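Response to reviewer comment R2.3. The reviewers asked that we include at least one raw input/output pair. We reproduce the pair for Transcriptional regulator here without editing.
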Amino acid sequence: MRGHTMPSGHTKPHRIGPLLREWRHRRNLSQLALALLAETSSRHLSFIETGRARPSRELLLRLCDQLDVPVRQRNRLLMAAGYAPAYEETPIGESHMDRANEAVERLLTGHEPYPALVFDTASDLCRANRSAMALLDGVAEELLMPPVNVVRLGLHPQGMARRITNFTEWRRHLLSRLRRDAAFTDDERLNCLYEEVRAYRYPPGLLETEPVFPDGSDIHQVAMPLHIRALGTELSFFSAVTTFVAPVDITLAELTIETFYPADTHTAGTLHSHHWNDHLHAAVPEGSPLLPTAR
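Raw output as returned:
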C-alpha cells in the first residue's frame, strides 16, 4: 500500500506474557485491578503473563487500552502474541493525512504572532511557525541540521541555553519531562536523548543563573515560564500542549503541538509590534521546510 507502512519488529511470537507484565508494572496495577478494568478474570490474566494462555486479539487490545500503551508499542505486543500489527504509520505529507495536516498548519499559522511548534515522540521537530523559528536565531548551525531535536535545541550549550535567563529551572523542567516521557512510552530513543542532554557541560555561571521576573505579576505565576532574550529584550512565555484524540495512525498518535503564550504584558506588546514582524521576516527566510505551507 503506497505511502503506508506497517512497522516491522523482531519480537519472538507468543512471548506476550513478560511484555504484558512489564507494562502492568510500569502502570503500577495489580493483576486484579487490570483484570477488572479489561473485563477479564485475574486467573486468565495470570495465565497469560506466565505463558500458559494466549490472549485473543480483542482482549489484548482491551488490555492495551487500559494500560494506555502507545500505539507503536501496541503493534509490538500484537506481534509478540502472534497477531498482525493493527496500526499503520503514514507520513504526514501523504494525501491520506490531508485533514490532519491542514489542522496542524491552521493551528500554527493561526497562533502567530506567538510561537508554536510540532514535534514527534523522539522530540524531533516536524514543523514550526515563523515566531518559533525566529527564537532560534543564533543557534549553532549543526543543531539546525535535520533531524532538529527540540530538547537538544533547548539544552545544548550552543543552542538556546545561553539566552534562557531562567535556564536552571527550565533545564530541570525539560529533563523531568523527558524522563517522564521515556518511562511512559518505553522509547529507547528518549532514554538515549536523556542521557545525552543530562551530560552537557555549561560555561561557569549558566546553571546558577536565577530566574528573572520582568514585572511583579510573575511572582504569582500559575505555570513555570520560559524567559528568553530575543530582539534586544527579554520575552516570557508559558506553554500548552495539544495532541490528537483517539488516533489510529502511529504518525498522528506521536505528534505533539506545543503553543507558547505571553506570560506578561511586555511580551505580548513586543510580539504584536511592527518591530517583531520585521524581525520575523529578516530572521526566517521564505520557503523554510519547517514553516507551514500557505493554503
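The two ends are 27 Å apart (CA to CA). The longest strand covers residues 233-242. Further pairs are available on request from the corresponding author.
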